[in-house]
């Protein structure tokens, strides 16, 4: 069995709990332009504030996270976790490609929504 929180500091565990609790608001600010992008950013703020030290770095991370986001809410935490991990790597590694963060996010939205909708979605019969 894989223990995801093994080896995490107390501060990291607290940050991930904040992200999880904020994920319940994923459809709170849905709109036609960015879908749930603003709510995704709200959920990612603990990660951004923890890993980025300067205002410029935080602004760039916030711009990345506010982009279009539309996914089944039951699986949104999976994508939040992947994005949080990539943001941490970006903050520690100068050679990290920041475009890959949104590329991974965009490429997983569709398949995860399909899986989530088939398990948790409404049945139209």
UniProtKB/TrEMBL annotation:
PROSITE patterns per record: PTS_EIID
Pfam families referenced in this protein's UniProt entry, alphabetically: EIID-AGA (PF03613)
InterPro entries: GatZ_KbaZ_carbometab, PTS_IID_man
PANTHER family cross-referenced by the UniProt entry: N-ACETYLGALACTOSAMINE PERMEASE II COMPONENT-RELATED, TRANSPORT PROTEIN, PTS SYSTEM
Protein name (database record): PTS system mannose/fructose/sorbose family transporter subunit IID
Natural source organism: Allocoprobacillus halotolerans
């Amino acid at each position: 069995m894989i223990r995801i929180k093994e080896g995490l500091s107390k501060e990291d565990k607290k940050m991930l709990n904040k992200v999880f609790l904020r994920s319940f608001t994923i459809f709170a600010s849905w709109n036609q332009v960015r879908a749930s992008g603003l709510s995704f950013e709200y959920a990612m703020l603990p990660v951004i504030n923890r890993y980025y030290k300067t205002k410029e770095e935080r602004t760039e991370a916030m711009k990345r996270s506010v982009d279009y986001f539309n996914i089944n809410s039951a699986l949104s935490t999976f994508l939040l976790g992947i994005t949080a991990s990539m943001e941490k790597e970006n903050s520690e590694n100068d050679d990290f490609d920041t475009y890959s963060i949104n590329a991974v996010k965009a490429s997983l939205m569709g398949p995860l929504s399909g899986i989530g909708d088939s398990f948790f979605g409404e049945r139209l019969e």
